[in-house]
């Protein structure tokens, strides 16, 4: 299966129209049709269904689209890395980031690297640690920022200098907003929002034997989305300080947990996997 055929397939799936895809790729429509037919014969299945309004993917086509996006992205990364070998004037870095106010540490290192290497390009995806760690394992990213210490047998890592501090985001008219700090028993009876990973790994460290009395209402990978539900009065959000706007007039308030709960971020990269020259230089700038 050729990468070029997968690029064609993805273009057609995006456009839903053979003519527009041909224009995007600067090839003739008959050539595209021939490549799609050849790909379908190779895979032994139909990938598109022709409708009056254009082309739609079959169930097998949707599965291929998911796989093809990963393969094409990896092919692009390989091409970029080999084009940039031996030079630091440019290059491409890929990051997967957990949410934190301390991401500014990473941003400053990127700024320094860009001053040294004006041709630097970088891509950033956000997500919970489990998601970005999976992308690091697959080779889709160079570095992952995780909200837990990674397995030292598989990854090398560097701990961020300052920890993130946990607290509760609530409406500013909530009874909890009248407290300076929030204890476990204060949250009993409240519908709680939290990331699935933190509910499993972080909150039990704080709640201890009272964990069973807390009620998880829903999980959110991004604190902003959880804050929207808080604003509607659906519950309160357990989150790092600084990730949600709780300034005066926002309608929300933040109170730290008591006893204090902290999580330290880690920058991780795969052990025994060579870094590109630009990635190695970034590591030096960020981690010292």
TrEMBL record:
UniProt domain HTH lysR-type: residue ranges: 1-58
Cellular component per GO, a single term: protein-DNA complex
GO molecular function annotation: DNA binding; DNA-binding transcription factor activity
Keyword terms: DNA-binding, Transcription, Transcription regulation
Top-rank lineage group of the source organism: Bacteria
Pfam family, one: HTH_1
Family: Belongs to the LysR transcriptional regulatory family.
The protein, known as: LysR family transcriptional regulator
Organism: Bifidobacterium cuniculi
Upper taxonomic lineage: Bacteria, Bacillati, Actinomycetota, Actinomycetes, Bifidobacteriales
């Amino acid at each position: 299966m050729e990468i070029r055929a997968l690029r064609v397939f993805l273009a057609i799936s995006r456009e839903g129209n053979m003519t527009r895809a041909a224009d995007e790729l600067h090839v003739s429509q008959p050539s595209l049709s021939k490549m799609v037919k050849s790909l379908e014969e190779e895979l032994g299945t139909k990938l598109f269904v022709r409708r009056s309004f254009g082309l739609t993917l079959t169930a097998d086509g949707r599965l291929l689209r998911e796989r093809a996006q990963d393969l094409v992205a990896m092919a692009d990364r390989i091409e970029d890395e080999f084009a940039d070998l031996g030079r630091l004037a440019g290059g491409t870095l890929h990051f997967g980031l957990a949410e934190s106010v301390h991401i500014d540490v990473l941003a400053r290192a990127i700024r320094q690297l860009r001053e040294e290497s004006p041709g630097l390009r970088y891509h950033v995806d956000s997500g919970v640690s489990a998601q970005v760690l999976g992308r690091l394992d697959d080779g889709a990213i160079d570095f992952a920022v995780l909200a837990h210490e990674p397995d030292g047998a598989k990854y090398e890592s560097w701990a961020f200098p300052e920890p993130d501090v946990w607290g509760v985001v609530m409406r500013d008219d909530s009874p909890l907003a009248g407290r300076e700090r929030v204890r476990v028993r204060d949250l009993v009876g409240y519908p709680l929002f939290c990331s699935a990973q933190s509910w499993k790994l972080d909150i039990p460290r704080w709640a201890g034997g009272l964990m069973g009395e807390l009620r998880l209402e829903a999980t959110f990978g991004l604190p902003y989305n959880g804050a929207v539900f808080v604003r509607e009065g659906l519950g309160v959000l357990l989150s790092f300080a600084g990730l949600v706007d709780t300034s005066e007039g926002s309608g929300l308030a933040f109170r730290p947990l008591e006893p204090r709960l902290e999580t330290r971020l880690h920058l991780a990269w795969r052990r025994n996997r060579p870094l590109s020259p630009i990635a190695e230089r970034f590591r030096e700038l960020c981690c010292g």
